[in-house]
Amino acid sequence: MSGEGKVVCVTGASGYIASWIVKFLLQRGYTVRATVRDPSDPKKVDHLIKLDGAKERLQLFKADLLEQGSFDSIVEGCDGVFHTASPVRFVIDDPQAELIDPAVKGTLNVLKSCAKSPSVKRVVLTSSTSAVAFNTRPKNPGVIVDETWFSDPDFCRESQVSIVFPIQNESLKLVKLGYAILMWFT
Ligand SMILES: NC(=O)c1ccc[n+]([C@@H]2O[C@H](COP(=O)([O-])OP(=O)(O)OC[C@H]3O[C@@H](n4cnc5c(N)ncnc54)[C@H](OP(=O)(O)O)[C@@H]3O)[C@@H](O)[C@H]2O)c1
Predict the structure, then answer these.
(1) Is 157's C-beta closer than 6 angstroms to any atom of ligand 1?
(2) Residues with Cβ < 8 Å from 92, sequence gap 6 or more?
(3) Distances (CA, A) of 143 to 140, 149, 156
(4) How far is CA 10 from the centre of its chain?
(5) How far is Cα 150 from Cα 87, in angstroms, rounded to an integer?
(6) Span 52-82, pLDDT tens digits
(7) What are the backbone dihedrals phi and psi of residue 122, each rounded to the nearest 5 degrees, phi first?
(8) Closest Cα to residue 47, out of 71, 78, 23, 68?
C-alpha cells in the first residue's frame, strides 16, 4: 500500500516499536510526524534521522504525554496516528505517578487531540499481553487467551504484578494495566 501524500503521526517515536513503525511508514511513502520528548537528544533521534526517506518525509516534534494539548498541532492534518508513547519500566517506585498517570492521562491527551482533528481517520494504540494475562482463571494447555480474558484489577492490586483500573465514559472504555494499556471503542 502506498502512503504517498498521506501524513501519519507516531508518538514515542524513539521507542523500540515506534522506530520500526516509522521505518515501515517511510518505506511505504508516508510523511511521518514523529513525536519525542527531546528532539535534540541524538540518542533518541539519530537512528530515525538516518532512515531511508527521513530526509524528505520525517518531521520531528517535541511532545510530552502529560502536557495537555501537547499533541494538538502535531496531529492536526494527519490521516492516522500510531500512539505508542508510554513509560515501559519493570522496576518502579511509584506506579501511579511513574507509570499509570503518563500512560492513561497521556493516552486520553492524545485521543483528545485526535478527536479535535477531522483529518484523523484511524488511531492505533499499542497494547500488551499484560492486558489479558493477570487474573485468577487457569491457563491450562489448550486455553486460548483473548479479549474475554481481561486482567482483573483486584487480582493485580493484591498480587502487585500490575495495576488495573477502568475508566469509562460515553464513548470509550479504557483498561490500564501496570505495563500495558488496552483500549477499545463501544
Ligand atoms: N516492546 C514490546 O515487546 C512490547 C510488548 C507489548 C506491549 N508493548 C507496548 O508498546 C508500547 C511501546 O513499547 P516499546 O517497547 O516500544 O517501549 P519503549 O522502547 O520504551 O518506547 C516507549 C516510548 O514512550 C516514550 N515516553 C515515555 N514516557 C513518555 C512521556 N511522558 N511523554 C512522551 N513520551 C513518553 C519514550 O520516549 P523517550 O524516549 O522520550 O523517553 C519512548 O520512546 C508500550 O505501550 C508497551 O507497553 C511493547
Answers:
(1) no
(2) 98, 99
(3) 6, 11, 21
(4) 9
(5) 21
(6) 999 999 999 999 999 999 999 999 999 999 9
(7) -145, 140
(8) 23
The finding on whether 84 has its CB within 6 A of some atom of ligand 1 is yes
Which amino acid residue places its CA nearest to atom 41 of ligand 1? 37
Q: What is the DSSP letter of 151?
A: P
Long-range contacts of 168-172 (CB under 8 A, 24+ apart): 172/111
E-state strands within the chain: 7-11, 31-36, 58-62, 80-83, 122-125, 165-168, 172-177, 180-185
Residue that is written with C-alpha cell 532512515 in the block:
51
| Contact of 167 with 104, CB cutoff 8 Å | yes
The pLDDT tens digits for 77-104 are 999 999 999 998 878 888 888 888 898 8
Q: Could you tell me the pTM of the whole model?
A: 0.86
Residue 150 DSSP code: P
User: What separation in Å is there between the alpha carbon of 66 and the centre of ligand 1?
Assistant: 14
Summarize the confidence of residues 10-23 as an average pLDDT. Answer: 98
How far is it, in rounded angstroms, from Cα 99 to Cα 23? 27
C-alpha cell at 6: 498521506
